[in-house]
Amino acid sequence: MTRENTKKTVNVLVVGTGGQGVITASEILSDVAMRSGFDAKKSEIHGMSQRGGVVTSHVRYSENVASPIIMEGEADILLSFELSETLRWLHFLRPSGRVITSLQKIIPPAVYAGMGSYPEEAQTVIKQRITDPIFVDALPMAEELGNPRLVNTILLGIASAMLDLPVDTWEAVIVERVPPKFTELNLVAFDRGRNIT
Amino acid sequence: MKNQILSGNEAVALGAFQTGVKVASAYPGTPSTEILQNFATYKDVYAEWAPNEKVALEVAIGSAMTGVRTLFTTKHVGLNVAADPLMTLAYTGIPGGLLIVCADDPGMHSSQNEQDNRFYAKFAKIPMLEPSDSQEAMEMVEEGLLLSEKYDCPTMLRMTTRVCHSKSIVQIDAGNQAAIPVAEGFKRDLKKFVMIPAFAKLRHPLVLEREAKLEDITETTAFNRIEWNDNKIGIITSGITYQYVSEIMPDASILKLGMTFPLPKKKIKEFADKVDRLFVVEELEPYIEDEIRIMGLAVEGKAFFPKLDELSPDVVADGFAEAGVLPYDLPPVQEIAPGGDMPRPPLLCAGCPHRGLLYSLNKMKAIVHGDIGCSTLSVLPPLQSIDSTLCMGASISMAHGTVKAMAGLEDKRPVFAALGDSTFFHSGITSLMDVIYNKGNVNVVIMDNRITAMTGGQQNPGTGHTLQMEETYAVDIIEIVRALGCRRAREIDPFDMEGTMAALKEEIAHDGPSVLVTKRPCVQLFRQDPLAVRTVDTDACIGCKRCLKLGCPSISQGDIIPDEANKKERRYSNIDAATCYGCALCEQVCTSNAIVYVAQ
Ligand SMILES: Cc1ncc(C[n+]2csc(CCOP(=O)(O)OP(=O)(O)O)c2C)c(N)n1
Ligand code: SF4
Ligand code: SF4
After folding, report:
1. Could you report the predicted ipTM of this complex, rounded to two decimals?
2. What's the rounded Cα separation, in Å, for the pair B337 and A83?
3. Is residue B310 part of a domain?
4. What is the number of structural domains in chain B?
5. Distance between CA atoms of residues B32 and B75, nearest Å
C-alpha cells in the first residue's frame, strides 16, 4: 500500500537558478491558491539565491496542508526556468506528474573550471521519463513580447492551465504584483502561456 | 479577521508590532534577518542594526530594564557572540518583556555550523517556545512577552530556517489587541541589576525558583498539547518536524511541544504511559529524547532520525519505515536523472568588487585567512583564494596566531587576513588591536563594498545610513585603523589589477602590520549602470582560458577556434553583454588583447 493523497493536496515544485524569478512565481501561485480558498504553504531556501546558485520553491495547497515541503515522488508539477535544473529535480515528480520547462540553458562557470559538464541530452532524458513534457522557449517568447522578465508570467500561464484555480484570481494577483506600467504586458504573457497547450 | 500568507519572520515582526514592542536591536544573519527588516517598517517603533549580536542584546537589555517591550533577533551562531550578556541576564531579569528570537539553521543552508541552540535556553534556564508555522510564530511572540514579564526573565523564541522562510496562512485580527503594559521607566535596583558576586549570589537561587515555577507552566500551557489517535504509536515532536510527523504518521498520537524549556515532564509521562511505543522526532541533537531517557522512560529517536542535517518528510518517513511502523510502503526510490547532478555553486557576481583582490591574493603564494561574507565564495574553483573561514572577525586574529607560530620556521610565506567591512565592525576591530598591541605582522585587507552583502544588503556603521535609511555618521575605516596604532593604512581600487597586485607585494615586502582597504560598492546591491561592457574580439582570442580563471559568471566558452595545425581543441571566450558589468578585470588578465571595450 502506498501513501494516499486523501486531502488531494496539489504540489508544485518551482525551480531555476538565482535571479530568474523562481521566488516571485511561487509567491504568485501560493497567493492565488490562498485567495481561491485553500490552505497554502510555500517553502524555499533563498540564502544564496542572489549569487546564481540553485533555487527551489515548494508550493502546496489543499483544504489543510501540514508540511511545507513536498516529498520526493509526490510533485504534481515541476515548473522549471532552466533546462538542466529540470533534470536535477525530476525525481520529485509523481509517475503521473507533469513537466513545464523553459529551454533556457545557463551554463555555470563551474563547468569551465572542470567541475562537471552541462547535460546536453536533457530534453531526451526528460522525454524518456515523463509523459507529455512541455518544452517552451520562454525567453525568446518573452523578449518578443517586449521584456525578458515576462518568462515568469508565461510559465505561470502554462501552469495555470493545469491547475484548477480561477483565472480571475490569477489575473488579479498578477496585476497586484507587477508595476502598473507592465500590467497589460503581463496579462498578455499570462494568456499566451495559458493557451500554449 | 483577515487572512494573509506570511513567512515565519514576517509573522514574528507583525506579532511584535501588535503586542507593543517598542525597541528592537539585531545584527543581520540568515535566516533571521527579515524579522527586523519587517519590524522596522511599522509605525512608531525603534529598530536598529547593531554592529554585532552582543551589542544588540545589551541594547535590548537596557531597553527592557525600563519596562518597555523589546525584541532581539539573531541567527544561531550570533547567540554565541551574545552568550555573555545572556547568561547573566538570566540572573538579573528585566521588568519589560524581552523576546530573544533565535533562528537555527539545521542543514546549514547558509551557516558555518548547525549547532542546536535549544541548549542555550536550558543553559540559561529561560523559557523557550518553538513555533511550527507562521500562525504560531505570531502567537508565541505574545506568549513569550507575557512569560518574560511574569517570570522576570527573557524568553527565547527558537525558530529554524524552515519556519523562518516558509510561508503559511496567518489570521490577522486587527480588532483584538491585547493590553500592552505601561512601562514604568528605569528604576534603581542595585541588588537586581548590579551583578557583583554578593548580589549575584542572591539572584542565582531566584533563577532556580523561576525554573520550578516554569515547570508548572509548561504542564498547563496550550502550546503543549496531545493529539490523541491510535495509541500504538506515540510521537513527541516540536517545531517544523511536527508538520512532517502529522503528514507522515496520520494515525499516530502526537504530543506536540510548543514550550520546550522546561519540558512538561508530567505530560510526557502521562503520554508515554498510554502508548505502546514512544518516539521522539527532533532535528539535530537528542535534546528532548535525552531528557525523557533521564526520566527513566523507554523512548526511541536518534536511532532512526539523524542528528545531521535538517529533517524532511522523506527522512521522517524513512525513519519510521526503519522502525517498522510506517503504515504504508515507501514509493520506490527514484534515481536522480542522469546529468541532474551538475554542480551549480553560488558565485561572486559579475563585476563583484571582491574578485580583483581575491584573484590577486591567489598570485601571492601567501597563507590567506578568510572570513565570513561574500568573499567566502572564492574558496571554490577557479579562484580558491582563501585557506580558512571560521567565524566572524577570526581572519585577523587567526592570521596573527599563524604569524607568531611561524617565527623561526623554514616556511616564510606571507600571511594575509581578508574580511568585509561589516565583519570588521562586528569583531575585526578588537582582533586588529591585538595585532598592533602584540607587535604582530599581519597584512590585513578590508573589502569595503559599502554594505553587508552576504545577508542581502544591510546597512552598517560604515555606510552612512541607518536601518530605516536615515542619514547618519559613516565610520571611517582608515581612521579606526590608524587610531588602533596601525600607521600603514590606505585605500586601493580592486578593479585595478596591476595596482592591487603592486600594493599586495609592497605590503609583503614591508616588515610590519598593514591594512589595505579595497573600496568599491557591491554591484548587486547598488545596481549602478554598468560601466563599459566588454566583448571578446574573436580575431585575437586564442582560447587560453586565462579570463575564465576569474570565475566571472558573464564569461563562458563559445565556438571552437578553427584549427590551423593539429592543435588541441580550443574555444573562444564569450562575454554575455546582458550581465557583464564592465569591471575590466578580464581585459586586464588577457595577454592577447582580445577583450575589448564596447563603445555605446
Ligand atoms: C556571528 C555571526 N553573525 C552573523 C552572521 C551572518 N553573516 C554572515 S556573512 C555576514 C555579513 C558579511 O558582511 P561583510 O563583512 O560586509 O562582507 P560582504 O558579504 O559584504 O562581502 C553576516 C552578517 C554570521 N555568520 N555569524
Ligand atoms: S552581492 Fe555584492 S559583494 Fe556579494 S558577490 Fe555580489 S557583488 Fe560581490
Ligand atoms: S568586464 Fe569581464 S570580468 Fe568584469 S563583469 Fe564583464 S565579463 Fe566579467
Report:
1. 0.96
2. 12
3. yes
4. 4
5. 6
Residues B59 and B143 placed together within one structural domain of the fold:
yes
Parent domain of A178: 10-105+120-194
Give yes or no: residues B465 and B572 share one domain.
no
The reply to whether B448 and B468 lie within a common domain is yes
Q: How far is the CA of B50 from the centre of ligand 1 (A)?
A: 13
CA distances from A177 to A24, B167, B342, B363 (A): 9, 17, 33, 47
Ligand 1 pocket test target in B392, B395, B458, B523 with most atoms within 8 Å of CB: B392
Return the half-sphere exposure (C-beta side, CA atoms, 13 A cut-off) of residue A193: 30
DSSP B533: P
Same domain, B361 and B286: no
- At residue A7, the pLDDT reads 83
Measured between CB atoms, which of A30, A68, A107 is closest to B556? A107
Residue whose C-alpha cell reads 522562510 in the numeric block: B165
Asked whether residue B364 falls in the same domain as residue B291, the answer is no
Per-residue model confidence (pLDDT) at position B191 = 98
Report the percent of chain B where pLDDT is more than 90: 94
Res. B599 pLDDT band, cuts 50 70 90: confident
Of B165, B247, B381, the CB nearest to A46: B165
Q: How far apart are CA A96 and CA A15, in angstroms?
A: 19
Is the separation of the CB atoms in B392 and B452 below 8 Å? Answer: no
- Cβ distance of B167 and A114 shorter than 8 Å: no
Based on the fold, state whether residues B458 and B582 are members of the same structural domain.
no
Which has the closest alpha carbon to B523: B557, B547, B495? B495
| Cell digits of residue B302 | 536518534
- For residue B396, give its domain range: 354-526
- Nearest CA residue ID for atom 6, ligand 1: B29
Q: Which pLDDT score, from 0 to 100, does residue B526 have?
A: 81
Question: At residue A27, does pLDDT exceed 70?
Answer: yes
Put simply, whether A164 touches B (Cβ < 8 Å) is: no
Query: What tens digit of pLDDT does each residue of B187-227 get?
Result: 999 999 999 999 999 999 999 999 999 999 999 999 999 99
H or E stretch at A10 = strand A10-17
pLDDT digits (tens, 9 = 90+) for B587-596: 999 999 999 9
- What are the pLDDT digits (tens) for B147-191? 999 999 999 999 999 999 999 999 998 766 678 999 999 999 999
**Residue B77 CB contacts under 8 Å (≥ 6 apart), including other chains:** B29, B111, B112, B113, B115, B391
CB B98 within 8 A of CB B61: yes
Q: Which residue has the cell 508555522?
A: B133
| Residue B399 predicted with pLDDT over 80 | yes
Q: Which residue has the higher pLDDT, A115 or B417?
A: B417
Quote the mean pLDDT of chain B: 96
- Predicted pLDDT of residue B71: 98
Residue A112, domain member (yes or no): no
**Is there a single domain that holds both residue B404 and residue B436?**
yes
Interatomic CA distance for residues B434 and B430, integer angstroms = 6
Q: Report the CATH number at residue A136.
A: 3.40.920.10
Q: Which of A71, A105, A118 to mutate to test the interface with B (most CBs of B within 10 A)?
A: A71
Interface of A with B in 91-110 (CB under 8 A): 91, 107-110
Residue B505 sits in the same domain as residue B372: yes
Task: Please give the residue of chain A at the shortest CA–CA distance from B332.
Answer: A73
